[in-house]
Amino acid sequence: MASIETFNVAVPDSELGRLAQKLEHTNFPDELDEGGWAYGTPLADIKRLTKYWQEQYDWRKAEAAINELPNYRTPIDVDGFGTLNIHFIHQRSPVEGAIPLLFCHGWPGSFLEVTKILPLLTSSTTPSFHIIAPSLPNYGFSSGVTKRGFSLPQYAETCHKLMLKLGYPRYVTQGGDWGCMITRIMSLLYPSHVRAAHINMIRGHAPTLFSNPLLYLQHKFSPYNAREKGAADRSNWMLKEGSGYRVEQATKPQTLGYSLSDSPVGLLAWIYEKLHDWTDSYPWTNDEILTWVSIYWHSVSGPAATLRIYYEAAKDSGFGRDRSELYIPTVKLGLSHFPKEITVVPKAYGRTMGPVVFESEKEKGGHFAAWECPDELVSDMRVMFGKGGGAEGVVDGRSGYGVEKERAKL
Predict the structure, then answer these.
(1) SS3 call for 103
(2) What is the bridge-based pairing of β-strands 82-91 and 171-175?
(3) Which residues contact 209 (CB under 8 A, 6 or more apart)?
(4) Of 22, 174, 261, 340, which one has the greatest count of Cβ atoms within 10 A?
(5) Rounded to whole angstroms, what are the CA distances from 25 to 59, 221, 264?
(6) Distance CA 239, CA 242 (A)
(7) How far apart are CA 117 and CA 138, in angstroms?
(8) Element (H, E) at 220
(9) Using CA atoms, how far apart are residues 244 and 29, in angstroms rounded to an integer?
(10) Quick one: which of 300, 295, 289, 297 has its CA closest to 260?
(11) Which are the catalytic amino acids?
(12) Rounded to the nearest 5°, which phi and psi values hold at 61?
């Protein structure tokens, strides 16, 4: 494990001073009477959070909590893009036979999303996991990319090479948002290494008579349950009222980047809207909101860099977001359906994505499952990878239950 070093977050005092000045000189927009959330993040909410940021929020306290985690950083060579310094959390379980699990975040999340499930999945309760949760390139405390074309295969390559460097040639993955798509591309590119994948953002398509006749007939003649009946409403809302951010970030990310990089309140409003709209009435605290936003404000490459994945993935005709939604063979797949995900699909849609060995439907929860519903996600992972589960024993020598001799590699 050469070139792997421990890492502490240490935002300079001068940077915090500049932030305070920017907050002090914020120019707030006006607002229509009774506009509510229909027009975007309400002015009263942003003024309240800005005041809290100025007078009560303690970044040093949040920073200290982050530094209590097992933080590391290591250089990873990405083909055609040079060496990137990748920050990651690496929490090992006391169970020697624990399953290596890559947790992959998306936007506007970060490595912080893993922190609620970290103590649960790495405990001695079995099956247990060794968890690796990187800051993706361009995010958090990892390096930024300076060349065009860094798309999902490059994010996948970065994560895969990190797992190999840590001594995990075979592993499993968990992802939502871009983490879902990145780990899906990992399954496509590295199927002999990725032994199973669990996702909580499910973006499959309706089965067809030609592609999957049995699934097509099951879907056609099986009545929808309550969650599936509400799927169209949630998905249509997202398409008509909630997807403007994606169009901008996928077409002109640099233009938007000036505002998000210069205005902490602008960044706050941009991210907080998603935290509100994409969750299932989750009771966000001021400190949670501002810590999530601060990870972006204090990131190595700045908020603008985090948007570029939208542009690059949209331009990638071979391994972009569309390919991540199609069938990927060989790698076992687990699905957790949450009713307030940003797009909600019937179960049959998810089963077009790969060989599904686990599936659950939740009564509550939204886009940030690991943060909103950590116990639900942990329960699903334990069932999927536990005794009798569809992905039991997928990683040779690492069942999650104790010390084992690794079986001969095929």
Answers:
(1) strand
(2) unpaired
(3) 216, 217
(4) 174
(5) 20, 60, 11
(6) 6
(7) 24
(8) helix 213-221
(9) 20
(10) 297
(11) 177, 311, 367
(12) -70, -45
- Residue 8 one-letter amino acid: N
Dihedral sign for Cα atoms in the order 14, 8, 62, 378 = positive
pLDDT means per 10 residues, the chain with 410 residues, are 89 98 97 95 98 98 98 98 98 96 98 98 96 98 97 98 98 98 98 98 88 81 83 90 96 98 98 98 98 98 98 94 94 97 93 97 97 98 98 97 48
Record the tokens describing residue 102, joined without a space.
């890559």
DSSP letters spanning 257-271: HHHHHH-HHHHHHHH
- For residues 231 and 344, the answer to whether their CB atoms sit within 8 Å is yes
Nearest CA among 207, 170, 203, 164 for reference residue 313: 203
CA 279/CA 341 separation, integer angstroms: 7
Joined together, the tokens standing for residue 401 give 């239950």
Q: Specify the pTM.
A: 0.95
Predicted local confidence at residue 403, as pLDDT: 62
Q: What is the 3-state secondary structure (H, E, C) of 312-327?
A: HHHHCCCCCHHHHCCC
Structure token pair of residue 238: 């997202």
Torsion sign across C-alpha atoms 288, 302, 247, 39: positive
How crowded is residue 305: how many other Cβ atoms within 10 Å of its Cβ?
A: 23
Instruction: Report the alpha-carbon angle 52-277-373, nearest 5.
Output: 90
What share of the chain in percent tops pLDDT 90? 89
The phi, psi pair for 331, rounded to 5°, reads: -85, 120
Residue with tokens 């509510």: 36
Non-local CB neighbours of 280 within 8 Å, separated by 6+ positions: 338, 339, 340, 364, 365, 366, 372
